[in-house]
Write a sequence for this structure.
């Protein structure tokens, strides 16, 4: 794969409801391997990794009550670990950015709450560095949750500060990918939203990038729904934000699938996104 080297970012894995640390071990190994460009860590190492934070939806009650104590506690633990990494001398790689990998709707909703937390948002800005914030939204049944996460980040101004000399350009790329080895030829939707600065000091530097992955068992999202969502975003932005949308229907890179379905294709998709 012809890609640029990837420094070790801070990676936050937001698990699904009922998720346990052992369920995320393969994702930890995946991110460790991509960041180093070598084989994954040997089994038995600390599952969290040096720069990897695990977080879980506390309970069904916590899912229904955004302000529940359990979710506040989990959010504070994430912030504390972020602060620890930010002030650690040995992990002084602030320009490596932050990667948030959220699973299922539970992870999406928790991520929305985190992005609306001003303290957490400031942490992401401080630690984002030149590579900014990268979101991987994994196994969502539809476009509503990814849209909510993206809108939350944009609303906070994480990557959307608009000044006269730095107009904002948003490029939305959608691709339908055929998954092989299936009795029925279904489609998988890949959305990549790139939010870029443009200006004399920081030309085309990515600040917010989002990858949505759908597996073979996930509901297929009609392209018309995606087009309608993009049109709404464009209408909201108006001419002042100078947003442009580009759609690519054919993607020549790897197919996107759940890690448990097609691990090689899944890894290639994530690595291409993180390194690209």
């Amino acid at each position: 794969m012809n890609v640029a080297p990837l420094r070790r970012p801070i990676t936050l894995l937001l698990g699904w409801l009922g998720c346990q640390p052992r369920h995320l071990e393969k994702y930890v190994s995946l991110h460790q391997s991509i960041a180093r460009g070598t084989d994954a860590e040997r089994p038995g190492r600390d599952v969290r990794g040096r720069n990897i934070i695990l977080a879980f939806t506390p309970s069904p009650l916590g899912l229904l009550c955004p302000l529940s104590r359990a979710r506040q506690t989990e959010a504070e633990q994430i912030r504390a670990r972020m602060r620890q990494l930010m002030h650690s001398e040995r992990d002084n790689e602030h320009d490596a950015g932050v990667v948030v990998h959220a699973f299922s709707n539970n992870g999406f909703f928790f991520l929305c709450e985190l992005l609306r937390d001003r303290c957490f948002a400031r942490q992401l800005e401080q630690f984002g560095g030149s590579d900014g914030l990268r979101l991987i939204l994994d196994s969502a049944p539809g476009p509503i949750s990814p849209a909510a996460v993206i809108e939350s980040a944009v609303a906070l101004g994480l990557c959307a500060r608009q000044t006269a000399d730095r107009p904002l350009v948003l490029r939305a790329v959608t691709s339908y990918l055929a998954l092989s080895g299936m009795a029925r030829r279904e489609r998988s939707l890949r959305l990549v939203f790139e939010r870029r600065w443009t200006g004399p000091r920081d030309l085309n530097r990515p600040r917010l990038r989002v990858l949505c992955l759908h597996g073979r068992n996930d509901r297929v999202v009609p392209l018309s729904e995606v087009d309608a969502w993009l049109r709404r975003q464009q209408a909201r932005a108006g001419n002042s934000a100078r947003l442009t949308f580009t759609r690519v229907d054919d993607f020549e890179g790897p197919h996107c699938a759940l890690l448990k379905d097609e691990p090689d294709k899944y890894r290639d998709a994530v690595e291409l996104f993180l390194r690209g």
